[in-house]
Design brief:
By secondary structure, this protein is mainly alpha-helical. The chain has 17 helices and no strands.
């Protein structure tokens, strides 16, 4: 009887959120991120369907909106445990809504523009609602969440309004919606946010892997079930290029950045580092990877032909954007510039018009050779420092 009497006092409310305690990414978060495999694929497909500068801009705008939705959930699950209580069910609902959003991507600027905006609003509303559950007694966090709710409402309203237009006007409203949405956390301040730094860094590393997986998928899609010597060679070079992008992030950069985030002063300093380095600058890396995926798709399908200007920019310019994201990432952390990555990004951009006169296979080979040469130079330059970074447990105490 005593136990029965005590139970009402200890029972958790049905609509409650349990704060995160561990650092490890949960299975539900990995499951949630799988929806973005389709989202990235659809963004690439949108640009592939319209291989023009306007089509490229549309694909990147859609990618930006999808990225910002993912970022919101990355911050959310660094505060609450997504597998406890009603949060799990809301996460499932958000996944379903994200799936519908992804299915709308190909017509996000056409017949399904309004549907995209409305369902995207559902995804973001679920995120805000969960954050409100996580902040019943935290005034600073609730203030930040309310500010985010305001910027979200403005963005969704602009997307819905954009569905009434087409062409430049529609694109301009999309760009404004993305800008104001992403500017929200910057304008409302960073003091109120909370995060588990090890979890936050790992979560972003995993989404980079998912994006790189899209490059592998693009190789298969570009081959379209055919296999010749040229397609096979292009496929191998495509994997080599993707592996190089993996190396440039995970060999040293991800490890050092994660430790710096963990060691940063808790509160405003740590939150702003997470916001700038991960929420903002990782978008450059993800956009670069998705552009490279588009370039690989076009290259595999037409390996013996020269690339047109937009696909050539996607392949070489996308790799340049990815490297520039790394340059900005390092500068934000340590205020130094990675000169070799900056130089390679500039060289790749210069080579775009040259690529339009070369067979696509040759262009892909040049890009792979250049980035692997840079990796070899960096790895040799790191020397013992690389081993110390990757194996800190081996250092004498």
């Amino acid at each position: 009887m005593a136990a029965m009497a005590a139970s009402p006092e200890t029972r958790q409310p049905r609509l409650s959120a349990t704060l995160r305690e561990g650092e490890q990414v949960t299975p539900l978060e990995l499951f949630f991120d799988l929806v973005f495999v389709l989202a990235f694929t659809q963004s690439t497909a949108l640009m592939s369907r319209h291989p023009t500068w306007s089509g490229l801009a549309q694909g990147l705008l859609v990618l930006g909106m999808l990225w910002w939705a993912w970022v919101g959930y990355a911050w959310l699950t660094s505060v609450i445990d997504p597998e406890e209580g009603a949060v799990r069910l809301v996460m499932f609902g958000a996944m379903a809504a994200l799936l519908i959003v992804s299915l709308c991507v190909l017509e996000a600027f056409g017949n399904l523009a309004l549907v995209f905006a409305l369902v995207y609003g559902v995804v973001r509303t679920a995120h805000i609602a969960l954050f409100m559950l996580a902040s019943p007694e935290d005034d600073a966090l609730r203030h930040s969440v309310l500010g985010l709710a305001a910027s979200t409402a403005i963005a969704v309203t602009l997307l819905a309004t954009a569905s009434l237009f087409d062409g430049v006007a529609q694109g301009a409203l999309w760009a404004l919606a993305l800008f104001l949405d992403m500017a929200g956390p910057y304008l409302i301040g960073s003091e109120g946010w909370k995060l588990v730094p090890e979890h936050f860094a790992e979560r972003h590393g995993l989404i980079v892997i998912i994006a790189l997986g899209e490059s592998i998928v693009a190789i298969g899609v570009g081959a379209a079930g055919n296999l010749t010597l040229g397609i096979g060679a292009a496929g191998v070079l495509g994997v080599a290029l993707t592996a190089a992008m993996w190396w440039t992030y995970f060999d040293i950069v991800a490890i050092v950045a994660g430790r710096r985030l963990t060691e940063a002063k808790v509160g405003r300093v740590q939150n702003e580092m997470a916001r700038d380095s991960y929420s903002y600058l990782h978008l450059l890396m993800i956009a670069g990877i998705v552009l490279v995926a588009l370039g690989l798709k076009k290259t595999i399908g037409h390996f013996d032909e020269h690339l047109h200007t937009v696909p050539a920019f996607a392949l070489l310019g996308g790799l340049a954007v990815y490297l520039l994201g790394h340059v900005a990432f390092r500068y934000r952390h340590v205020r130094t510039i990675n000169r070799q990555r900056l130089l390679l990004a500039i060289v790749l951009l210069i080579l775009v018009p040259v690529a339009t006169e070369l067979p696509a296979l040759v262009t892909l080979a040049i890009a792979s050779l250049l980035i692997w040469a840079m990796i070899a130079y960096e790895t040799r330059g790191y020397g013992e420092a690389r081993h110390r970074v990757r194996h800190p447990e081996a250092e004498p105490t």
